[in-house]
Amino acid sequence: MHGGILIHYANQSATPESRVAIFVESETRLTWTSLFLNQYPQAKIYLVGGTMRDILLGHLPKDIDLVITGIPADIIERFLTSQGAVRFVGERFGTFKFVPHGCRSQEPIDIALPRKESITPNHSSGRKSLEIQSDHTIPIQEDLSRRDFTINAIAYNLQSREIIDPFFGQNDLCSQIIRTVLTPEDRFYEDSTRILRGLRLAAQLRFGIEQQTWSAICNNMDLLNNKIISHDGTFAYAVPRDAIGREFAMGFISHPVHTLTLWEQSGALKMFIPWLYAQKNIVLEDKTTAFDKTKTLLHTLERPSFLAHHELDSMHPNVLIAALSMFCDENQKALHLCRDLYLHQFPANHWARIDCDIVEWLIDNTRILENNDPSSMRPSVFEKQFCSQKGKQLLALVHAIELTQSRHCASTQRLHTALRLYDHYCSQTYPKLVTGSDILEFGITPGIKVREIMDIIRDAQLIGKIETKEQAKSYIKSII
User: Fold this and answer.
1) pLDDT, one tens digit for every residue, the chain (480 residues)
2) Which of 123, 151, 241, 404 maximizes the CB count within 10 A of its CB?
3) Domain range for 140
4) Nearest 5°: phi and psi at 215?
5) Domain termination residue (choose one: 177, 200, 230)
6) How many domains are there within the chain?
7) Is residue 41, in this structure, part of any structural domain at all?
8) Within this chain, do residues 319 and 367 fall inside the same structural domain, yes or no?
9) Using CA atoms in the order 282, 286, 287, 293, what is the torsion angle rounded to 10 degrees?
C-alpha cells in the first residue's frame, strides 16, 4: 500500500516516533546498536533515508540505512568486525556494508559517517565530480541538508527516540508530494541523477511533484547529458547511462504507465528514448497513436483481473519491457533499450531484474500463433514452447496484445486454444518416465532416433495415454 488511507490510519493509531521504535525493537539486524551505544556513550546512531521514509509510510523496509556520529571510522570498523561481517566501501563515502552475526540471509546494513558535499571548479553535475567530506563531527542536521528530497531527509535518533525532520519531510509524506531539500536548481546541479530519481520516486510511491521541483526537473534535463574528459582523453557522460537505466527501470517496473507519462511530460522520454517518444506521431488504424496504444497495453498487463486470469501476482519486468515496442515500426527497439541503458544490471534476486535475452525471445515470438495452430501442435512441442516461465510470460503478452487491439482474427481463437492447452499441459509437473539410456536398452542406435522416441513417449504421457515407467517401456516396444 502507498500513502493515503494507510498514512492517515498510522497517524491516528500511533505516533511516528512509536512506529519507528517498534521497527527498531523488532529488527534483528539492529540488536548490536544498544551494545555500541553503551560502549561509546558519546556516539549517536540515526536511522535515515529510505528506511525512515518506508517506515513512516507503513511499509516494512528491506534495506536499513544508518548514520553514526561522534565516533571515528576506524573505531566503528573495529567494533563492527567483532559483531559480524563488515566491508568498508571507501574513504570517499565513508560507508560500511555490515551483516551482523546470525543475519547472513538478510540484506546488509549501510552504515555511514555524516558527510557534506561541495561543488568543485570542474563540476559537471555528475555525482563523481562532487567533493564529499565524511567526518564523524558533522551534525546530523548538516548531513540531512545535503540530501535530495525532503521525504529522504528524515532521521531517527535510536538513543533519544526522537525524529529529526528539519525540512518537514513528514508533511510531504502525508501530502504525498516529492519536494527537493532547499533550492531544486541547486540540488539538481549538484547531482543531476536526482532529476530522474524524483520521477522514479513519484512513480513508485504514486506521489505528485511539487511545482517548483517539477519546473526544475523539466528545465534542467540537459544536465544529464553533460560530458567530462576521461582518463584516456575521450569524452564520457558525467552521468553513466546505466544510472539512467536504473532510475527508468525501477520506476517503470513499479508503475509503467505513470512512468511513461512523467518521462514524456518532463522531456526525459524525448531525450533518452526518442523512438518511444516518436510513437506519439504514429497514428494507427483506429485513429489512436502508437504511444497511447502502448500505454493501453501496459495498463492491460497490470490490470488485477488480467493478472488473476494468468495466475500472476505481478507482471514480469521482461514482459513490460518487451511491450514497449509492440506498436513500433521496429519491434527490436525494446531490446536495444534493454542493452543501451543496461536494464539487465540488477542482480538475479532483485525485483526489477530484467533478462535482455528473454526480452528478445518474447519479441521474436509474439506472432507465433499467427503461424502456428496450437491445437495441431504435438503436446511435447507445446510443452517446450509454453510450459516454462518465459512461455507463461509470452502467453500473457500475446493475450494482452489481442485485448488491446480489440479485433477478432485467426490468432485470437488460437490464443484461447493455447490458454486451454496451457491449463492442461502446464498446470502440473509430469515426471520424466524414460531416459536415453532406457531407450538404448531396446537396441536403438544413439542419435536423433532416441530423441524422437523420447518425444513420442512424452506426447503419450501428456495426453494421459501412459502414466508409469512400465507403461512407457511397453509403449516403446509397440512403436519399434
Assistant:
1) 344 444 444 555 689 999 999 999 999 999 999 999 999 999 999 999 999 999 999 999 989 999 999 999 999 999 999 999 999 876 555 789 999 999 998 999 999 999 988 888 888 888 777 788 889 999 999 999 999 999 999 999 999 999 999 999 999 999 999 999 999 999 999 999 999 999 999 999 999 999 999 999 999 999 999 988 877 778 889 999 999 999 999 999 999 999 999 999 999 999 999 999 999 999 998 899 999 999 999 999 999 999 999 999 999 999 999 999 999 888 889 999 999 999 999 999 899 999 999 999 999 999 999 888 999 999 999 999 999 999 999 999 999 999 998 765 557 889 999 999 999 999 888 899 999 898 888 888 888 999 999 999 999 999 999 999 999 999 998 887
2) 151
3) 5-177
4) -60, -40
5) 177
6) 3
7) yes
8) yes
9) -50
Q: Judge whether 202 lies within some domain.
A: no
Do 456 and 345 share a structural domain?
Answer: no
In a domain, 230, yes or no: no
As a whole number of angstroms, the distance between CA 106 and CA 100 comes to 9
- Structural domain contains residue 133: yes
Question: How crowded is the C-beta side of 101, counted as CA atoms within 13 Å?
Answer: 8
CB neighbour class for 20 (10 Å; exposed up to 12, middle 13-18, buried from 19): buried
Longest CA–CA separation in the chain, Å? 84
Q: What is the pTM (predicted TM-score) of this model?
A: 0.89
3-state helix, strand, coil in the chain (%, to 5): 55, 10, 35
